[in-house]
Amino acid sequence: MPPQCSFARSPRCWDDTGVSFPPSVGRYRIDRVLGSGAFASVWLGHDDALESQVAIKVLNGSLIDDLDVRNRFLEEARILRRADSERLVRVHDIGELPDGRPYFVMPYADLGTLGDRMRERPLPVTEAVALAEQIAYGVEVINTLGVIHRDLKPSNVLFQSTADGGEKLLIADLGLAKALAHASGAFTLPVGTPGYMSPEQARFGGGLDVRADVYGLGALTYHMLAGRAPGPAPVKKPPSELREGVSPAHDQVIMRALEVERENRWPTAEAFAEALSTLRPTSVPDVPAYAPAAPQIDADATVQDFYRDGTQAPPQPGPAQGPAPAQGVPPEMRTRLDQPLGDDVHTSEMRLPPGPADNAESTVVDPPKPFGQTEGPTAPDNDNDNDRTIAYQGPPPQAPGDNKTAVFPTQPPPQNGAPPMGQGGQQPYAPPPTGFQPPGPGQPPGPGQAPGSRQGRASKKFVTPLIITVVVLVVALIGGLTLGFLFSGGDKKDDKKKKPAIPADFAAISDDAGKIKAAAPKAWPKQQEQTWPPSSVNLSDPQPRPVLRATPDKAAFLGDGKGPGVFIGVTTDVRPGKLPPPTASVHSRCTKAAPENYTTPDGALSGTITRFTACKVGTPSVTEVGLKDKAGKFGLWIRVKETDNRNATKDILDNLKVTGP
């Protein structure tokens, strides 16, 4: 039904539910209302200049004077714009209506939401896991920006068709997103959606970090597999008890994300995504394209959900309860512990609008701060020298006995003792026979012999060769020393030539602890990471280990992203066949080459290099490397992704030094 419009006084149009909207916003012609919530509305618009459909999110008029709500609305647009990721909804434009209401323009998700899809049909297990992995990598993008989403649920995951007939998944609605710098103070009011939010979100003084989003990801994955949200913590029934085809391996990954104590969860969204990747088959079928009829978009999922057809999500149990006693977790499922975090006394959240109490996805929010009080800038806006890449132009200075490893292999010190006296390890030069014979009995040479006597001539005959012999010996000794010095100096010069030279387009980098040192293209800056969880890729190593990652865009590097870069992770799991991890180093849509044996120039590390080329997804080439140190105490998983023909892997490995786990 086309909208009805009136042009008396100010032009207004109405959709079939009676919701009004202007006929145009800037250069965008408004077609209809997609959804309306307590805080905002979403309109379907048309960009006549670019001939494309857009979604326009507009703050509701009743809140135009609430500065706290207004600032939160604009902060959502800023976060999405700053991320500018293919995994998140992008913001194309921002503006203000004549009545002062702010709005921002996004792509139109023409294939609806994950909630729409789940109401239409049960998701196959393989498809659900693949979607959960994509969502987790998208959440990692948000967390990398120093922001927690805090409201992950099916209505906040959108699908948009692509030019090639496929689809892409987008994470939306950051209305409750909160900067990490303001999420770990001494007091935070409950905020989130019951059934999906973490226990620390559901209680006063919980304190928040990225593991709150890990819980939300676990709850969302649980819902996709089991057919319903897990409900309040602690979650007792694994998804395999609610649906056939869900294996104990699925339970292990998902239930760890839903741990009441966050120290027992996966440490990051990326770690959860990598754990999910181990559940997919070797050859993952493409997720089938799905186009629901007339997608129903939740306009304000961060506060209260309204479906356009008036329906609500199935009721869920009551609000999440306080923390339960920590459950026993086997060592192989443990992650690194963080420092105790408090809560934010200055947290400002929005009021809980009146609505049905049994709405499964209705979002619990806390009351706003006094008028005019706003939050400070988010963590990514602050200047931070820790984000800068450490680039050495040569090996760092090394003090004697400091046990530090240089970036490049060094030569052993000169050996003590005299240098060789000749070439090739030959014996020192021996003088030729002199013909000297000692005088016979009864004919000793005497000092009183006359020069011209027969005895004097005999003395000269014997003394002269002796002097010559001594001179020859001295000359041979000096010559041997000289030759030894020359050859020793030449060896050092040659050894210097054998040292791996850092390429001109590379820079030396190291992790913050100085345990991993390498060289990478200058276009790949070092990322601020300290550790990674080897257990996330099924390695039998429960402790966090040193990591070094260099990439222009971490979000684009993850998974099947199209961003180049290098990842170097240390582990103590050096069992045969475990490096690179077989479950995480499968690229079924690439051409795999035979593994190549490799040893670093200093002989400290050795293993295999496996190259994947002509990839149909992600970067054109991916290289998976597994190395072990010669003592067998630790190993390395290295992944290099490239978008050109630089073949940077060998240069990276040749300049690699690792001191231990």
TrEMBL record:
Bilayer-spanning residue ranges: 462-487
Keywords: ATP-binding, Kinase, Membrane, Nucleotide-binding, Serine/threonine-protein kinase, Transferase, Transmembrane, Transmembrane helix
Pfam families in the cross-refs: Pkinase
Extent of Polar residues compositional bias: 527-541
CDD domains attached to this UniProt entry: STKc_PknB_like
Basic and acidic residues bias locations: 333-349
Keyword ATP-binding in annotation: yes
InterPro entries: Kinase-like_dom_sf (IPR011009), Prot_kinase_dom (IPR000719), Protein_kinase_ATP_BS (IPR017441), Ser/Thr_kinase_AS (IPR008271)
SMART domains: S_TKc (SM00220)
Entry-linked PROSITE patterns: PROTEIN_KINASE_ATP, PROTEIN_KINASE_DOM, PROTEIN_KINASE_ST
Keyword Cell wall biogenesis/degradation tagged: no
Record region (Disordered): 308-457, 518-544
E.C. number(s) listed in UniProt: 2.7.11.1
Binding residues annotated for ATP, in chain numbering: K57
Single annotated GO MF: ATP binding
Biased composition, class Pro residues, residue ranges: 429-448
Residue ranges of domain Protein kinase in the record: 28-279
Descriptive protein name: non-specific serine/threonine protein kinase
Taxonomic source organism: Actinomadura darangshiensis
Lineage: Bacteria, Bacillati, Actinomycetota, Actinomycetes, Streptosporangiales
